[in-house]
């Protein structure tokens, strides 16, 4: 059964500042706390609440319990002219990932391309944040991350691999972004987790229950497995990600990864992979944008199928949503507000509803 969740709106700046203060209170340096807050609010702005500020409580709890380090010693080693290996030292995923991407941008500007393989990290939020960072520097980005097992491989019914997201980001075509950010599962598992908290139903085909039966009950799905995108194809992509970010990094992979929500003894040891290409090394950025705009215009001019009024590029609907929410504020369900306020109390901070400007 679906239960409509009450909700309230918060100005973006106030929400971002509140999140940063909570992480600072948990021992994270101010600059790093601001990075974590920015990454989480970025996801909410794009309409992907499962990766947004709803993650504040679990990120903070892991830091407070020592399952993730508030002040990691992140090491970046240049293994070859265009190859970096990054030791995240069990730091917050957004902090580790941004340092890796910024270092990779610098190398890509020098070499034309850079691959950064990251080990010993944690959940790093929405990949689109790092793609936008690279695009602002004139680089294309292909990003990947692994996750603890929650998905079956094609033909199986056990959780043996993560939903292992893949992100691709380009320079925009004029005002139109080209940014794909997707799990290799039918749906990001975070959406099932959020649905389970609210007792909601989920669409058929998303998941199996603990007995391996198809289910539309989010709570039953949370105890079971999410299914790979397009069957064998999504399963193959998830395995590819696991090789690049788990096996290649030297960190944990698949079943050896620490569980974000239930294991506070084992570091998650998440891996990431970022491949960056400096467009200017192949052609002037203005020429690339013109060619990309021509491609986008051709695709958007194609005939719409029944039920569609417009052809949208990957990331376009999220960009529009972000522009709207930046002006109107981010609406959070009451259960998310409650969880964030519980986290605030754990570090002696006031709750969201005590902040100025909430609606």
UniProtKB/TrEMBL annotation:
<protein>
    <submittedName>
        <fullName>Lactate dehydrogenase</fullName>
    </submittedName>
</protein>
<dbReference type="InterPro" id="IPR043143">
    <property type="entry name" value="Mal/L-sulf/L-lact_DH-like_NADP"/>
</dbReference>
<dbReference type="InterPro" id="IPR003767">
    <property type="entry name" value="Malate/L-lactate_DH-like"/>
</dbReference>
<dbReference type="InterPro" id="IPR043144">
    <property type="entry name" value="Mal/L-sulf/L-lact_DH-like_ah"/>
</dbReference>
<dbReference type="GO" id="GO:0016491">
    <property type="term" value="F:oxidoreductase activity"/>
</dbReference>
<comment type="similarity">
    <text>Belongs to the LDH2/MDH2 oxidoreductase family.</text>
</comment>
<keyword id="KW-0560">Oxidoreductase</keyword>
<dbReference type="InterPro" id="IPR036111">
    <property type="entry name" value="Mal/L-sulfo/L-lacto_DH-like_sf"/>
</dbReference>
<dbReference type="Pfam" id="PF02615">
    <property type="entry name" value="Ldh_2"/>
</dbReference>
């Amino acid at each position: 059964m679906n239960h409509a969740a009450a909700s309230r709106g918060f100005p973006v700046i106030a929400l971002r500042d509140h999140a940063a203060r909570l992480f600072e209170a948990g021992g994270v340096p101010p600059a790093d706390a601001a990075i974590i807050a920015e990454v989480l609010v970025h996801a909410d702005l794009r309409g992907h609440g499962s990766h947004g500020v709803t993650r504040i409580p679990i990120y903070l709890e892991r830091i407070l319990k020592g399952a993730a380090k508030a002040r990691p010693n992140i090491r970046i080693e240049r293994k070859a002219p265009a190859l970096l290996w990054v030791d995240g030292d069990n730091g917050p995923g957004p902090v580790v990932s941004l340092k890796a991407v910024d270092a990779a941008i610098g190398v890509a500007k020098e070499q034309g391309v850079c691959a950064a393989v990251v080990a010993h990290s944690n959940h790093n939020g929405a990949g689109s944040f790092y793609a936008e960072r690279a695009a602002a520097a004139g680089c294309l980005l292909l990003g990947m991350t692994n996750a603890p097992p929650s998905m079956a491989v094609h033909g199986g019914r056990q959780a043996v691999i993560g939903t292992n997201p893949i992100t691709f980001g380009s320079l925009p075509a004029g005002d139109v972004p080209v940014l794909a950010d997707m799990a290799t599962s039918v749906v990001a598992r975070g959406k099932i987790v959020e649905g389970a908290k609210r007792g909601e139903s989920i669409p058929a085909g998303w998941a199996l229950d603990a007995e391996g039966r198809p289910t539309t009950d989010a709570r039953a799905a949370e105890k079971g497995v999410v299914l790979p995108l397009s069957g064998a194809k999504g399963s193959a992509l998830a395995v590819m990600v696991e090789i690049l970010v788990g096996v290649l990094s030297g960190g944990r992979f698949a079943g050896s990864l620490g569980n974000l929500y239930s294991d506070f003894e084992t570091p998650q040891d998440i891996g990431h992979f970022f491949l960056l290409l400096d467009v200017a090394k192949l052609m002037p950025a203005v020429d690339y944008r013109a060619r990309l705009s021509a491609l986008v215009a051709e695709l958007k001019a194609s005939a719409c199928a029944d039920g569609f009024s417009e052809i949208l590029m990957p990331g376009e609907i999220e960009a529009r949503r972000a522009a709207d929410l930046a002006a109107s504020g981010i609406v959070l369900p009451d259960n998310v507000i409650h969880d964030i306020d519980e986290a605030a109390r754990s570090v002696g901070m006031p709750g969201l509803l005590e902040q100025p400007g909430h609606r």
